[in-house]
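A student in our group prepared the protein record below, which I am reviewing. This is what I was given:
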Amino acid sequence: MSVPIRPQVYLGSRAPNFKSSSSQGQIDFYKYIGDSWCLFFSHPGDYTPVCSTELGAFAALHGEFEERNCKLLGLSTNARDTHNRWLQDIEQITGSKVTFPIICDEDRRISTMYGMIDLRNFDERGMPVPIRSVYLIDPSKEVRLLHAYPLSTGRNTAEILRCLDSLQVVDKLDRKIMTPVNWIPGDDVVVSPELNEPRAKELFPNHRVIRPYLRLTPLDPDT
């Protein structure tokens, strides 16, 4: 069985809408996101070892994502009943209950639409196998971050939260700042190169100039 290849989603594109069965019933993607951010991520299949550890970790951090107005949505390639049995197993293994839905992408329609598949790997039916893709999608439905992990490498949940924090603080300050390497909330940020020095002094009076092209500034703790 083959799946038609469609253009992949790319950074800055509008995330395609879709309707699908999930572990929690039918989902309309746009209605599910609403006015929230969304972390949308894929798995190659149910009852796979690395995926089980990942879903348990995301479930444990669900409250952290909620505080950031970000909904979680997983995708795997099995039916609803199999999803729900697997999720019960994950709760027993990890101690964390998965309360967000998992898309049932049995025909690979959605994973192909989103470019989540690895065309070098096919299952026994000739269907492409999704890799570990990660998309952060903002409330306007724009794709703001893409990560792709091979099947052998589990995701880093702390890094995904860090990226969400970065995107949100940059948006809050109307993209007048950027975040440097290994930035976490509370660290200094980079003043945008698009701001001239007088404007930088006005907006960030405590900034310091390392080089004309590299200016760092602390942020107000409430930012």
